[in-house]
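Q: Here's a chain of 251 amino acids. Please give me its 3D structure as tokens.
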Amino acid sequence: MENGSQSRRAVNLFLNSKGGVGKSHHAVLLVQAYQAAGLPVIAIDADATSASFSSFHALGVKRVQLMEGDAINPRVFDDITEEFLTTDANFVIDTGASAFVELNRYLLKNKIPEHVRSADKRLVAHIILTGGSTFRETSANLEAIAGQTPPSVEIVVWINDHFGPVVPAGRRFEDLEIYKGSAGRISAIVHLADHTFSEKDTFGVDVKKMMSAGLSFAEVRESQDFTIMAKARLQLVEREVNGQLSSIIAL
């Protein structure tokens, strides 16, 4: 059940030009956070090169073919836009790395942010920042979205330390130049623990098994393939995730 006044529905777009940074993984977590909060959510997999998001069958993810060669098919995104403008639900849309530039151009040329705002909904761009050799490209994605989209587009930054720490030891994300340059546009920062490295023999194994099998947290609770301790650890992960995402989905 929805608590208190009804939150504004949101159109959540995961946007990154770098593949393999965790877009599908984080989209899966966001959908489940909406479900856990009792909020209606529709999930769409528009990644041309990977069907990772739509492999989570319990989430009812709809797969669409957005790309035709190196260009997006604008009519396909027209249909997606029609759906999220007229449907009383939140949307989580996983877009592919190859669509980053073209999709951003489509959104601006067709004034999608203005249409979403007129429909009294929120348009949220989710940008994943990764460490190591991928930091520069993912930082450039944040700079592009912050610099090119209108203020009505909210930006959520996900910090993913899988390839190395995004924030140097002893510092905060807010201390980095990439934050200072986009601070006025960033509405939330999500920094989930990377269990695959810090606790790779316990939490890491459990998370990897769940994600590789395309299972939701709810399915794990009913599965006989996970031990009591594995289920307990994944329940802790679920609480951590939903705790961080609760402020994002309730705006």
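Q: Can you summarize the key feature?
A: The first helix runs from residue 23 to 36.
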